[in-house]
Amino acid sequence: xxxxxxxxxxxxxxxxxxxxxxxxxxxxxxxxxxxxxxxxxxxxxxxxxxxxxxxxxxxxxxxxxxxxxxxxxxxxxxxxxxxxxxxxxxxxxxxxxxxxxxxxxxxxxxxxxxxxxxxxxxxxxxxxxxxxxxxxxxxxxxxxxxxxxxxxxxxxxxxxxxxxxxxxxxxxxxxxxxxxxxxxxxxxxxxxxxxxxxxxxxxxxxxxxxxxxxxxxxxxxxxxxxxxxxxxxxxxxxxxxxx
Length: 243
Description:
Blueprint: H1 10-24, H2 30-45, H3 52-67, E1 71-75, H4 77-93, E2 97-100, H5 107-118, E3 132-133, E4 143-144, E5 154-158, H6 162-170, E6 174-178, H7 185-189, E7 192-194, H8 198-212, H9 216-224, H10 228-242
Parallel strand pairs: 1-2, 1-5, 5-6, 6-7
Antiparallel strand pairs: 3-4
Helix pairs in contact: 1-2, 1-4, 3-8, 3-9, 3-10, 4-5, 4-8
């Protein structure tokens, strides 16, 4: 489909076309299309921009990733299609591991998503033939790699389901969530919640990683000064005032 560049919803329509094409290629599950539409509706409430509370959470997330011993970026189909290159850039900047993890899991989709990500770098992507399991999570997203999510101390999850976020937190891991719905269980249960669109959020986290990585003291201060509940409240007030 040829989309006129002067169309007021040009970026949104291009994004939708990318996802539809990924679905046709077997990278994306049909449920991923529904999830994107739901998220886009919440983005309207933010004015389709990174608002100050989101920026604060992105900076705190960068600090947490830098301060972690075994950080892992968890990737599903939507994230790989929309922001795969940014995921790899962030993984290289921290540095940390990347693992494909899916709710609608098939080994074929895992392999296709891993290959899509590996096209951006020589970095190996985890998730193929994973045999470990997140405790007390009896669903496909509980399957994970022993060397990746299972052993991580911090996991960044984007466009996530609340069950796995809760399960990861119960195991003592810090969870950084990127989710446009501030009221969902993922946002409410995560250690740090970034209420922002994933293609805006990841470059901002990369920016703050580069800003903080040579300053351990400032990194620690950034983590200690961040309160997720307070930040979510600020974000809800921002939406209310905007409306």
